[in-house]
Amino acid sequence: MCGIVGLFSKSLGVSEQLGAHLSAMLVELSDRGPDSAGVALYRDPAPVGSTKVSVHSANPDRDWGSLGLGEPEVRASHAVFVVDDDALERLREDHPELRVMSAGQSLEIYKEAGLPTDFVERFGLQDIHASHGLGHTRMATESAVTTDGSHPFWTGGDLCLVHNGSLSNHNWLRTRLRREGIQFQTANDSEVAAGYLTWRLAEGDSLDRALESCLDELDGFYTFAVGTADGFAVLRDPIACKPAMMAETADWVAMASEYRAIAVLPGAEDATVWEPAPATVYSWERQPQPA
After folding, report:
1. pTM check: above 0.70
2. Which of 39, 53, 56, 231 fits a disulfide with 285 by CB distance 3.0 to 4.6 angstroms?
3. Predicted confidence band at 143 (pLDDT cuts at 50, 70, 90)?
4. Annotated active-site residue in 2, 160, 214, 241
C-alpha cells in the first residue's frame, strides 16, 4: 500500500495555504498508510553560506536551546535551525542521540510514526507557507515501523523522495553507493532510491536524466515523487505497478496515489487530470526570478 502526495504551487494564494492543502491530501490517504506519515516542505531558503537543518529528537522534553545553535522553529519532536557548516558537523559529532532529517537550503522534513491524522495535528502543518511539498503515509513492507524508517528520505542537498513500492536490489545498490560517498541512516529500500538520485545529481545529471537512469538501475516496483529546491518530479516503473494520478491547473500541479487526495484541492473540478504513463518522467521547475 502506502500513499504519496505532491503539490507544486504556481500562485501566491496556493503557496500561502500549501501546508493546509498538503495536510488535507495526506489525511485523505490515511487508510493507505496508518503506520507513519511525513512531509517535505520547501520554503524560506537559508542565507548564502548557511544551511537549514531539520532535527528529530526521541525525547519529548528536549531543550533545543541547550544546543547553542540559536532559536529554532519547533514542531512536535522536530526543530529547524539555520546554521553554518561547522555548526552542522559539531551537531552530528556532539549529539549522536539526535537525527538529522535534512540539511539543505530550503528543505524541511517532518515525519513520525503513528496515524497521519494525528501527525498533521501534532505538527501544526496547516499554517505553513511553502512553494511546494511532498507527503507520505506508510504501510511498512521494508524495515521497521519507526520515525527513522518513515518517508520522506533525504541523502544530501535539497533532494528528497517519497516512494510507494519495493526495490529488490537495494542491498547491492546501497553497498555501491556507499563507495561513492553516499551515507545512509536506515535499512529502508526507499532511502537507497534517494541516495541513488543524490549521487547522479552530484555526477552532473539533471533531475530528469537521473530519474531516467532509475529505469535501468533500480529493480522492483515503484512510484516516486521527488522534490528539489526548484521543483518536483514523478516517475513510475516500466509496468506502472503502483497507482498514481496527476492534475494541473493555472495555480498548481498535484500528484497522488489516488484521485480522492487531489479532489480536496481548490479548483480540482476544473483541472486537467491524467494517469502518468509508465517509464515516463514528469517534472516541473520553478523559473528563477529576474534580477
Report:
1. yes
2. 231
3. low
4. 2
